Amino acid sequence: MRILILGFEYLPVKVGGLAEAITSIAEGLAKLGNEVVVFTPDHGKGLGEAVSSFKVSAFGEVTEVTVRRREQNGVTVYSFGGGLLSEPDVYGPGWKGLLKKTILFGKASAGLLNELIDEFSPDVVHAHDWHTVFALGLLKKYFGVRGVFTVHRLNKAKILGSYFHEASLGELAPYPDIDPEYTAAYIADMVTTVSRSYLLEEWDFFGTFEGKVTHVFNGIDCSFWNEDFLENKNLPREERRRRILERFGLSDGKAFMFIGRFDRAQKGVDTLLRAIEILSTDPAFVDMRFIIIGKGDPELERWAKAVGNRFPENVRVITELLSRETVRELYGSVDFVLIPSYFEPFGLVQLEAMCLGAVPIGSAVGGIKDTIIDLDADPENATGMLVPPRDAFALARAMIRAKNLDGETLQRLRENGRRRGREDFTWENACRRYLRVYSGAVDRAMHFIS
Ligand code: NHF
Fold it and tell me: What domains are defined for the chain?
């Protein structure tokens, strides 16, 4: 198949999990023998060789677009520079700047496909997240190509209809306030999201597209998240834990780790901080160690640091960026990884942890719920523990229970987790399902499923 992928993040450009997902999908599809081409903004990176340039006009201004091409792991990546397309802030500058950038991206995409169409006529355009709505709209309008739209995370924004007029897609904006996700899903032939639970939790949105909507789970790249690459891979896990805790200035104890954005809307670091405050009055606390890694909301950072200062023997808060290798070392050494998100379309942390033998304790939402098999629900096949979101007491209780688990259970959880990461959630599985989505030969969600 000839597949054209549209996305705002493509490695090495990375803001969050989206970059890993789009890149892994593109490369996975290429590995399966498909011809895969990616269109993405350049974001000031200047990667690849300049192969074309043309002018696009929007908002009364003409922008000279430079197209660069590179071959990256079997995928042909075209990136667009010039004007806001070269803006290094991937999702900016500001909201209005971002909207203009998405329109320029749309027009540049139509311009380039017009040049390529004789040598590359896609069977399907796969657009990721709402920033690609204008590109998808224009490619469908002018090339009549089949379109698939994937939601990695709902944004639920409204934009002025005039932006659609500016993009030459006024027919999609009969009202002043338009939700770009609805519009992208409306014009797409198939709509997907990244876990089954997220699809059902957000049925208010996805249900509108009943009959053409489905889920395709993300995968995990276990070739990087792999115990074979650990610095101290030959040492027993307890010894690795002792060493890593020492590296972070803590004595040995049961080690729990959190890694994620400090935000108020999704990742739930506030629930964890409350849970630690609750635990601090329990005798079990003496043997518990917490490594909390992340940054973001300044107030949450202050709160986390205050908790760290209050319990210097137990809690370490790290607000600088750690290398992927250090994070891997941590996953491969700590006992438990906490994912207290309020919601999570898929979430990679729980799978990264499982691949490296750390047992995840996560909120029973979205992709976390679909990837972790809970100890109570299925003791034989369990890979971790699930707790209700936003419930600090439940999280504290789960952590005490985790601390007291016997060695045999812990070992079983670890082994099941490794297997689940390596066998069930591979990018190859994801890509095989996307291929079925592209041809429409896939099961679709209906309101009576639960
Ligand atoms: O893993 C890639 C990522 C997801 O849960 C994650 C999210 C954004 O919020 O699909 O997209």
Answer: 2-219+427-439 (3.40.50.2000), 227-424 (3.40.50.2000)
Could you check whether the bond before residue 174 is cis, i.e. omega within 30 degrees of 0? Answer: no
Q: Which of these, 172, 175, 168, 184, lies nearest to 58 by C-alpha position?
A: 168
Return the residue whose CA atom lies nearest to atom 10 of ligand 1: 152
Asked whether the bond before 93 is cis by omega within 30 degrees of 0, the reply is: yes
pTM comes to 0.94
Please report, in tens digits, the pLDDT of each residue of the chain (450 residues total). Answer: 999 999 999 999 998 889 999 999 999 999 999 999 999 999 999 999 999 999 999 999 999 999 999 999 999 999 999 999 999 999 999 999 999 999 999 999 999 999 999 999 999 999 999 999 999 999 999 999 999 999 999 999 999 999 999 999 999 999 999 999 999 999 999 999 999 999 999 999 999 999 999 999 999 988 889 999 999 999 999 999 999 999 999 999 999 999 999 999 999 999 999 999 999 999 999 999 999 999 999 999 999 999 999 999 999 999 988 998 999 999 999 999 999 999 999 999 999 999 999 999 999 999 999 999 999 999 999 999 999 999 999 999 999 999 999 999 999 999 999 999 999 999 999 999 999 999 987 777 665 544
Distance from the CA of 189 to the center of ligand 1, in angstroms? 22
- Please identify, by atom number, the ligand 1 atom nearest to the C-alpha of residue 20: 2
Cβ of 18 below 6 Å from ligand 1: yes
Atom of ligand 1 nearest to the CA of 344: 5
CA of 16 to the centre of ligand 1 (A): 8
**β 75-81/61-72 pair status:** antiparallel
